[in-house]
Design brief:
Blueprint lengths: L1 H14 L3 H7 L2 H16 L4 H29 L3 H12 L5 H16 L3 H8 L12 H48 L11 H10 L1 H13 L4 H11 L9 H11 L3 E2 L2 E3 L2 E3 L3 E2 L8 H27 L1
Antiparallel strand pairs: 1-4, 2-3
Helix pairs in contact: 1-5, 1-8, 1-13, 3-4, 3-8, 4-8, 6-7, 6-8, 6-13, 7-8, 8-9, 8-10, 8-12, 8-13, 10-11, 10-12, 10-13, 11-12
Length: about 300
């Protein structure tokens, strides 16, 4: 399965998931999201205890709906090179290397030319913060943080679970991560219903998030210093996982990330990562993309070594 995940990553890096394919057949994440929305509308009501129970049921149903068909398909695939290629093609849309790069670059370009309104519109596509309350530094911070976190959620973690468990693993991971994105928020409506999704997402990202932070440190100019900063700052983050790649990214770039931020539901007063460093700018987004590219190359080289072994 490692070779198949390596090929899936290469396919996505080269082509992304083509727009005509999205328009013609959609995308697996869209299908999963539609199911989550329907279950939320039907099940998210009643007492707090009922909402928690129905949220756990939703996690079971959505994960099974993603993993079981993938398991049936995998058992039907032939052995050998043809099976590896078919597995890679089926896993391809569940990796988001090209989309992540394109969304981040879409912020860096207008921010670099001083077009803050356009940069705010672009950053609103990848973060949940109120874009109108972001200044230039806030846009850059939000973009780099999203890049660091999604390098784990959209690249490392899918490839990790795919290499470990094949198509069922990568499909189940994508279902869990999508549920966390859609219902794992601590809002009055979703705090109980989304609890199981948020907890399971924390669990399945435990190793990938730390591996992503380690990759950022390894390809940074000062790996030992970045490792030390990551270990120091990551536990301060509100998320048990996102803090690892974000703290490593902040230290590798020599900028500060996180800190207070505004969401639609209110202000979140978060501690700084790499406090005392300057705020990032548009050029630092480009540097962050370069760091991610180097980390991806090292990660894919590791996958290739495992496949060859």
């Amino acid at each position: 399965m490692t070779a198949a995940m390596l090929l899936a990553a290469l396919l996505d890096t080269a082509f992304g998931w083509p727009g005509p394919a999205v328009r013609r057949i959609g995308h697996p994440v869209i299908w999963i999201g539609t199911l989550i929305d329907r279950l939320r509308a039907r099940l998210n009501h009643g007492s707090a205890a009922r909402r928690r129970a129905m949220g756990a049921l939703t996690v079971l149903l959505v994960t099974a709906a993603a993993a079981l068909p993938a398991l049936l398909v995998q058992t039907a695939l032939p052995d050998g090179i043809s099976g590896t290629v078919l597995t890679a093609v089926l896993a391809w849309p569940l990796v988001a290397i090209r989309a992540l790069r394109d969304h981040v670059a879409a912020v860096a370009v207008p921010l670099g030319r001083g077009d803050l309104p356009a940069a705010r519109r672009a950053v609103a596509m990848i973060v949940g913060r109120d874009p109108e309350r972001l200044d230039r530094a806030g846009v850059a911070r939000a973009t780099i943080e999203s890049l660091a976190e999604n390098a784990s959620d959209a690249v490392t973690a899918p490839l990790f679970w795919g290499a470990l468990l094949g198509l069922p693993g990568i499909a189940a991971y994508k279902a869990v991560n999508t549920m966390d994105s859609m219902i794992g928020h601590r809002t009055p409506e979703l705090a109980d219903f989304g609890r199981a999704a948020a907890r399971l997402d924390d669990l399945v990202n435990l190793l990938p998030a730390r591996a992503t932070g380690a990759l950022f440190a390894l390809v940074s100019p000062a790996p030992r210093a970045v490792f030390a900063a990551m270990r120091r700052d990551a536990p301060r983050h509100r998320s048990p996982n996102a803090g690892w790649p974000e703290a490593a990214m902040a230290a590798a770039l020599g900028v500060r990330l996180s800190g207070p931020r505004a969401y639609a539901e209110g202000q979140a007063d978060e501690p700084w990562l790499n406090a005392g460093a300057p705020d990032p700018g548009a050029a630092d987004i480009d540097r962050a993309l370069s760091l991610c590219r180097r980390a991806l190359l090292v990660g894919l080289a590791a996958l290739a070594a495992v496949a060859l072994a």
